Amino acid sequence: MKTALITGANKGIGFETARQLLQHGYHVYLGSRDAQRGQQAADHLRAAGYPHVTPIQLDVADSASIAAARAAVGQQTPVLDVLVNNAGISGGYPQPALDTPLSTFREVFNTNVFGPIEVTHAFRDLLRQSPAPRIVNVSSGLGSLTLQNDPSWRFYSVKGGIYPPSKTALNAYTVALAYELRDTPFKVNLVCPGYVDTDFTDHLGDSSVTGAATRVTNVALLGPDGPTGQFFGQEAGSDLNPW
Ligand SMILES: NC(=O)c1ccc[n+]([C@@H]2O[C@H](COP(=O)([O-])OP(=O)(O)OC[C@H]3O[C@@H](n4cnc5c(N)ncnc54)[C@H](OP(=O)(O)O)[C@@H]3O)[C@@H](O)[C@H]2O)c1
């Protein structure tokens, strides 16, 4: 049975991605920074008929938690086929580039940038055991410098000083990682889930978690001829067309 680890999977897009990968026959390690919330999410999925789900306490901003999660997963499987770095925070809005306290920058970058990097490092040995490892980093169109500089883009005026730059950094790291792994079976890609109806957007988003998770899942399931180092998003016109 193939295996997947999803960070921030106790709710929102991560939870729905867990459900979809379970539907595709994966054993899912469901990351949650709060152990109880992770257990509840896993119980919910089991009750819905998906027995192959294991909650894993995983705070991506906490090195000790990442190391413990790596040890816990490693006790159960020698191979990880899919890593979805989904956990993310906005840091709250408004977030003026000049006047927001540096502590907020650090908090957001710890979760959105250093978190995925450290989780990827921690699980790289298990991923290397897979014949077709896939890493999906959940990003945002707000991190695209091209879109941020396009006055016709519908989110052009969303100019937070912290969250968008954190996703820009994640994008740049992902492109570098994909390039480094270009001659290996790894596929390393980015997905913007769209503007999604979750707690993250105070449920103002105009698209569903189902569609968002389908985008993430499709990129996690890319075949050997699939792309790597690309950014996929709703506004591409097709889920698998990079921006
Ligand atoms: N919703 C959108 O419109 C939208 C658009 C573009 C990109 N995204 C990205 O999509 C991803 C998921 O967002 P969502 O909409 O599903 O948000 P959400 O419903 O707020 O869920 C976020 C998840 O991340 C977890 N999380 C936060 N900090 C964490 C940490 N330090 N360690 C581990 N988990 C942590 C949360 O855990 P708790 O429950 O413990 O807080 C929760 O499980 C994020 O990366 C976000 O930036 C979302």
Automatic annotation (TrEMBL):
Gene Ontology MF: a single term: oxidoreductase activity
Keyword Zinc included in the entry's annotation: no
InterPro entries: NAD(P)-bd_dom_sf, SDR_fam
Endpoints of the signal sequence: none
Pfam families hit by this protein: adh_short (PF00106)
Domain of life per record: Bacteria
Record keywords: NADP, Oxidoreductase
Family as reported in the entry's similarity comment: Belongs to the short-chain dehydrogenases/reductases (SDR) family.
PANTHER family xrefs: (+)-NEOMENTHOL DEHYDROGENASE (PTHR43490), SHORT-CHAIN DEHYDROGENASE_REDUCTASE (PTHR43490:SF99)
Name the record gives this protein: Short-chain dehydrogenase
Native source species: Hymenobacter coccineus
Lineage: Bacteria, Pseudomonadati, Bacteroidota, Cytophagia, Cytophagales
